[in-house]
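Q: My collaborator sent me two sequences in one message, no labels, and asked for predicted structures for both. Can we handle them in order? The first one she listed is below.
A: Yes, handling them in the order given. First sequence, followed by its structure tokens:
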Amino acid sequence: MSNIKSRLAALEKASPIGPAIWRRIIQQPDQTEDEALDVYGRDRIAPTDRLIIRKIVDHAMQIGG
């Protein structure tokens, strides 16, 4: 286990911006991606952050019911 930790530490140290920060954004069915980012708070997201946007899909609307 210590070998993995030392390899991970070496990779993080070699990265010019440090370890990646991932932000999970929830996009509701009635929101655009921009609206979801506004709700999350654009000021909380740094330019170097990576985003995972999870779009909630209303299944009833998909099947026409």
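Q: And the one she listed second?
A: Here it is, processed independently of the first:
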Amino acid sequence: MQTVVLGTSGTTAADVIAVARHNARVELSEEAVAALAASREIVDALAAKPEPVYGVSTGFGALATRHISQDLRAQLQRNIVRSHAAGMGPHVEREVVRALMFLRLKTVASGHTGVRPHVARTMAALLNAGITPVVHEYGSLGCSGDLAPLSHCALALMGEGDAEGPDGVVRPAGELLAAHGIVPVELREKEGLALLNGTDGMLGMLLMAIDDLKRLYTSADITAALSLEALLGTDKVLAPELHAIRPHPGQGASADNMLRVLAGSGLTGHHQDDAPRVQDAYSVRCAPQVAGAGRDTLAYALTVAERELASAVDNPVVLFGGTSQAEGSGEGRVESNGNFHGAPVAYVLDFLAIAAADLGSICERRTDRLLDKNRSHGLPPFLADDAGVDSGLMIAQYTQAALVSEMKRLAAPASVDSIPSSAMQEDHVSMGWSAARKLRTAIDNLTRIVAVELYAATRGIELREGLTPAPASQAVIKAVREAGVEGPGPDRYLAPDLAAADAFVRAGGLVEAVTAVTGPLA
């Protein structure tokens, strides 16, 4: 099993995916433990002073004006966790919660939160034991971090609330901790607040979305090439010199992918045959431009995510050296800030939903073209065996169209909204969690949309008797048939075929089948 070691300087996207999706173990480096201890000393020194320090000896949010006496501070930290664990709705997916927990631990390990090493080690212990706190769909406004989701995680750390065990069964968190020999934490000054105040949920979902979309953009390049082939289109529009004169990196990558899939095809170049056409339709000819723009959007989103991965997001934060609230101690200080605002992450989550919707839309347009006898250049209506008696893939395209329509609704940005909270103290929020949740749905839909195009395009190629498809196309057809997606023939129950195509794309089978012939694709 892979082990991820957290230091003080952040983490990587690959490490987040390893922990969230592949159950990698988590350890703290000696550097991180030393930084945790040093920052805790600063917090303890400030807690002993009579002057109030936000997050250490005061209330929170709109209640920050109250100075809390030492005998109530442990209760204050417990109370903020309990009161903020106020989520509602369905349970969030296990991988999302694991990403959320790991990314919160990443910030804690930076040494800028004032959390004790013992608390950080306990956070790692929950991850390593496969204990996943129950987090609900609703409760984050994406500012002051993902408060309710993180609070549910902190609650489990205290041995309260519910959690899912490694067996997938939900039980009281205290029981699960006891079963794995983990002692619940007793929170001290600032620790409760430090466990709640970050963009970790939206960032985790952004990183997993990027991971999924990388595969889907390559998959869509492949299905676009298969559709071009089935439609007897021309691959001349994919020539590198054409894309060099408009040098968007993503466009060039998508065109190269398509060209490599089509290498050796006996179906391309027939656009001047029985029904001559000068140019292919936009959905075919402009496939690299549309998918490429999405690739470039994805690259920008990764840049934002990597900056966030290198960040320590908390409020207040512990800074080493200086004066300010440390009153000239020279050892360190605690400062309030606004780094918890989710706007940078929220914007790119919404941007990706827009790009994904457009990719889904162009996939659907190619599918519809394959099914229309007036535009498919010799294919039977709806790719049916006996059109009229058979309906072929008519309703598969309806399903795809319904998915595209929902994606367009999901592309409406969440981040343009803001709703005030905490008695107008938190009067502008990012709604980044909501942007992330709808993007996950959009990616699910996009996978299905690509699967329907794959289903139609492979059937269309097989119906072109007497013409030999590209070796990569042949490999796809062989692999998809072996995966349980049946080929042309009389009408049958289509849902199982579509489900098998979806599973094939989702698991990376489409990309694997092609790259076994072409070598790695972008």
